[in-house]
Specification:
The protein has 11 helices and 13 strands. By secondary structure, the protein is α+β, with helices and mostly antiparallel strands. The protein folds into 2 domains: 1-53; 140-162 and 179-386, Major capsid protein gp5 (Major capsid protein gp5 fold, 2-Layer Sandwich), CATH 3.30.2400.10. A 7-stranded mixed sheet has the order 5-13-10-6-9-8-7. It has a 4-stranded mixed sheet with strand order 1-11-12-4. Strands 2-3 form a two-stranded antiparallel sheet. Helix 1 (3-24) runs antiparallel to helix 2 and helix 3 (76-92) packs across helix 4 (98-106). The termini are far apart. Mean pLDDT is 79; it is low at 62-71 and 114-130.
């Protein structure tokens, strides 16, 4: 540092101190003037530094004139050194020559190029398993469930028949025989349902997620899906009814169902049918579907609770228009699920070939049978919501 630059730096320090004192004393005009003088001193110092840099380069022969048309060839190592020097100057806020600025601009640090800075840019990578929110309504709570301890068995039910009144008796006359009750059997035969899911032990060890907990939840959803299918397979065998209006639904509830069964009736349908029903109004312009006063999240039609199942789980028939399924009735009396074994989940990393393949195998098994109980207690209806 030459004497001139040292003198300017001392004056700059003094002027900055003067400006701060004036500012503390509330003399804003004098402080502003001192600040401008300090700025002028700083520019002089920067000019001296830049001039010194140019002189140094001239001494090294960096900016020596070249023959016309000849571009000096710079070795790669020299270019890396020059780039590193220019970059450090830029980071420290020091003056740079025109060539150094040009070098930085030509090799600007960007995220797009990994070696020019992309490696140091953090990436937002999450290993959390984000589950989609999708409805999965369990139909099992709507039907009757009986736990059984044997693989086969049966239940005795009375046969439906019109009750015949007693015969009028005459005094001292013989009492005639009356008709006798008739019975029937509902046999069940337990069937096994399940599967095995192999998981890599490396995956289980390396992941930071509770993968086994996720798998358990995933298997539970498969269990619900399995039970829903078995229940729907039975319900679809019940008497079919075609519905064209809400009055047809009223007729099923009022006429087709026994009043004792209608008291516990439910309506289960998909989004297509619910959307159509939800738009129906009475003569006063009031929507027919209303919230349940005791459970605001539940909807009711004619005082009967409605459960909506996603279209993908209970699809409509779209071959000719849109015909949506509507289940109406008392499913507690209509369907019985014989449950021999609730969902059982077990895992091993030794047996079943897991040891040889370095895997953990998760096995899920459940045992049950679903049968119709009272086939007159529910109807599998079809509601035309859009004609072809």
């Amino acid at each position: 540092m030459d004497p001139k630059e040292r003198e300017l730096r001392q004056k700059l320090a003094d002027k900055l101190e003067e400006a701060r004192k004036l500012l503390d004393e509330g003399k804003l005009e004098e402080a502003r003037k001192a600040k401008d003088e300090a700025k002028s001193l700083k520019e002089q110092i920067d000019a001296l530094e830049e001039l010194r840099g140019l002189e140094d380069e001239a001494k090294r022969g960096v900016d020596m004139p070249q023959a016309p048309g000849i571009i000096p060839e710079r070795k790669k190592d020299d270019e890396e050194t020059a780039y590193r020097s220019a970059y450090l100057k830029w980071m420290r806020g020091k003056p740079m020559s025109a060539e150094e600025r040009s070098l930085l601009e030509s090799r600007a640090m960007t995220e797009g190029s990994m070696e020019d800075g992309g490696y140091i840019v953090p990436q937002d990578i999450q290993t959390k398993i984000n589950e989609f929110k999708r409805q999965l309504v369990a139909l099992e709570p709507f039907v009757r469930t009986e736990a059984v301890v044997t693989n086969t068995g049966s239940r005795v039910i009375e046969k439906l028949a019109d009750m015949v009144p007693f015969t009028q008796l005459t005094e001292a006359g013989n009492i005639p025989d009356t008709d006798s009750p008739k019975f029937d059997r509902i046999p069940y035969s337990i069937k096994d349902y399940g599967g095995i899911l192999p998981l890599s032990n490396n995956l289980l060890s390396d992941t930071d997620q509770n993968l086994m907990n996720y798998v358990a939840n995933w298997i539970a959803k498969k269990s619900v899906t399995t039970r829903n299918k078995l229940i729907l397979d039975v319900v679809k065998t019940f008497t079919a009814k075609s519905l064209d209006s809400v009055d047809d639904i009223k007729e099923v509830l009022n006429v087709e169902l026994d009043p004792d069964l209608a008291a516990g009736a439910v309506i289960i349908t998909n989004q297509d049918a619910f959307n159509w029903l939800d738009q129906q109004k009475d003569n006063m312009g009031r929507y027919l579907i209303q919230p349940d006063p005791t459970q605001p999240n539940r909807k009711m039609l004619f005082g009967v609770p409605i459960t909506v199942v996603a279209n993908r789980l209970l699809p409509s028939d779209t071959t000719s228009g849109v015909v949506a399924p509507v289940i109406i009735g008392n499913l507690q009396e209509a369907v019985v699920l014989f449950d021999r074994q609730q969902l059982s989940i077990a895992s091993t990393n030794i047996g079943a070939g897991a040891f040889e393949t370095n895997t953990t195998k998760v096995r899920a098994i459940e045992r049950m049978d679903v049968k119709p109980f009272d086939t007159g207690a529910a109807f599998y209806c079809s509601l035309t919501v859009q004609s072809a």
